[in-house]
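Recall the central idea of this unit: under ordinary conditions, the amino acid sequence of a chain determines the structure it adopts. In this exercise we apply that idea directly, starting from the sequence alone.
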Amino acid sequence: MNNSELETLIRNILTEQLAAPQPAAGGQNGIFTSVDLAINAAWKAFVRFQQCPLKTRHAIIDAIRSDIAPHLADLSREGADETGMGNQEDKLLKNRAALENTPGVEDLITTALTGDEGMVLFEYSPFGVIGSVAPSTNPTETIINNSISMLAAGNAVYFSPHPGAKNVSLKLIAMIEEIAFKCCGIRNLVVTVAEPTFEATRQMMAHDKIALLAITGGPGIVMMGMKSGKKVIGAGAGNPPCLVDETAELVKAAQDIVSGASFDYNLPCIAEKSVIVVDCVADRLIEQMQLFDALLIKGDDVNTLRRVCLTPEGHANKSLVGKSPMALLQAAGLPVPAKAPRLLIVEVPGDDALVTSEQLMPLLPIVRVADFDAALELALQVEGGLHHTAIMHSQNVSRLNLAARRLQTSIFVKNGPSYAGIGVGGEGFTTFTIATPTGEGTTSARTFARSRRCVLTNGFSIR
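Accordingly, the structure predicted from this sequence is:
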């Protein structure tokens, strides 16, 4: 081969390489070097995704469910290890619930009206690129849950994971991106940046190609989103009270409360954060809770534990959030029993900081009150108008209904553990984005879609 032929061959090879589709600059498996690159790539993916039939969305959701399932145990372990919060066993249950029980395309129900003037269809269509903020308390659960909901609704997603859960979040996002690509041939339907930071989240919220913000986190990040000028679905803080009246089945109530309040070391925002019990059954309830491995802390030890678990301002000590009961005892310098308790319980007055603040740790305050009326009034104060979650144990239907109406929470669990409210051991679908500040409540695919009205005049009414 002479020089001229070699030059021609090289030129042809370079021409073919330049003509071939190239990955977006800085992006690999949906992970980019900058917010702008990531969102622009997701926007291009969304434009293509819009042209796909619904069966493509079905295929992606089915593949996510099947392909992520073998990795759930590893994701749960890595999430607990990286964040230092919660435990692998309960995270596995949460991840499995998110994967198996989050509704897909079937949630986008079409409705129709017909009459003498014709027909109207009401259908759901996507927003575009959604900016989704995921917390460190439920990092993989939120990403799985929101990926299914948002892709089912036809959107692309930019995830802003918590820096404290960076590694496991990026791993999962890359997995979901690859699954979606294999199903539809479109890259970058699910994206993020290699270094998630507060500044990256701020840039995402301000980006002109982000059509909707879905924020799962504390009140500060939700408020930041609300100031962006965009439509926001905000899942903020909660402080769920649990009411127990004298008609409750005390053995079941005790078991449910211990199970709910100890689940993933009390990290879920829906978990019981306090118990308000009618005085005449309080002793029996506490006795039963101890039989289900709750450890009652008494006397001066309560003050010692409070000083360690709360800051002087009455907020949760972040270094102990999501830690085990044994870790709390050790941090307080209190005796550690041979058998690890599932939950620590303390008796305190209704205005105690342990009651009025959201601790996110397996330390459950119990408050005695005179009767149901007093219990409900205190529950209203404790819940603080957050409209998040409340739990009640009673066999009095009228009281259950009254409490539900007065509290007006997004989730109200009757005679069960708190996690029944998100479809774990209870009916209903699973969600980890519970939009209380903005009012959507438990979110699903239809939450992340616009309602469209399509009108046909003078036709299709055959009644």
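The mean pLDDT is 93.
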